[in-house]
Request: fold
Amino acid sequence: DVKVTQSSRYLVKRTGEKVFLECVQDMDHENMFWYRQDPGLGLRLIYFSYDVKMKEKGDIPEGYSVSREKKERFSLILESASTNQTSMYLCASSPQIQEQYFGPGTRLTVT
Amino acid sequence: AQSVAQPEDQVNVAEGNPLTVKCTYSVSGNPYLFWYVQYPNRGLQFLLKYITGDNLVKGSYGFEAEFNKSQTSFHLKKPSALVSDSALYFCAVREHGSGNTGKLIFGQGTTLQVKP
Reply:
């Protein structure tokens, strides 16, 4: 079975803190994705990566950056957390054009 | 513009009755279509996909979906609903022109409530 793990299920941070969310997949997938999920807004793509060190902006990249130094790991960074970044963050991976496999999610609260 | 629409925010059915969760799409070329389910405080789980071939696709947990090209629809169905099917369901389509990146466009989600 494909396994996508995220470093934390729940996280509470203060405004202005730098926040790292980590995602690891164990299936050698080329593609990895970061989404945020908010009630009534569905899933919105923040960034994605189609290879090591390669990244592309999604629909809402502002306030975020990413890092992919190894194929299995894709990190989302909030440079200076703000309250409007309180959300559920979902990581996913996929082998090229096939279905995406999701991690359990990280519920981030910024106070 | 490419898009996916799930016209119902919520669908209510009684246990044992058939259920349908609707999805329509707008995308260039041949669509790659997917359904996912999300239980509370969990990530999304893949249910089924249509890439090519038979218009009726069978997936996990007894779910199936029917691809209808003329109506640009991909409705999710189950002959007999269970209370445990209560969850949030997402339809998605592969973004045309996204190469091998596997980018998906998601619908807004439909909450399915199955009452005993």
The mean pLDDT of chain B is 93.
